[in-house]
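Hi everyone,

Forwarding the result from last night's run.
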Amino acid sequence: MNDETLTMRRLGSSTLVFVASPDFVDRHPVLVHPSDITGLPFLSFQEDTARPSWTLTGPDEAATVVAFDPILWTSEFSILVEAACAGTGISLLPTEVAVRPIREGRLVRILPGWCSEEVTLHLVFTTRRGLAPAVRVFIDYLADHFVFRDRGQRPAQLPAGRAYRSL
């Protein structure tokens, strides 16, 4: 970071998985390979103006790069979850963010054999000097209660989704 007024705290690492609403999946053809999502509406947490892309690892450790043109960009995961649940498009979310709406049946995992490279998640905030005690406690709470795979924990287990077959 190039801003001396900001501090970054590492929360952990995760992989990203593709999700969409059951309704969205019912309205689109089979989604079994990353090339199948080309041209579909995509929701992205990358706010760069360049066309986002991800390197994905799939069955038998096969790797492929997927580029897409998002219809929604936001750094707020809750907005991405709600937009995906509403059937707006496909989203690539950290496993830990996706697991709850999948368990609730609001989202399903698509391309289940594919995931992103491991990514590191950070919490960014103004420098500790001058932070209110409540903010410090909140930051420590977040760091202690977000469980990611590098803290000796298993990655969040995603429930098995419905099987979708080609039409």
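The radius of gyration is 17 Å.

Cheers,
N.
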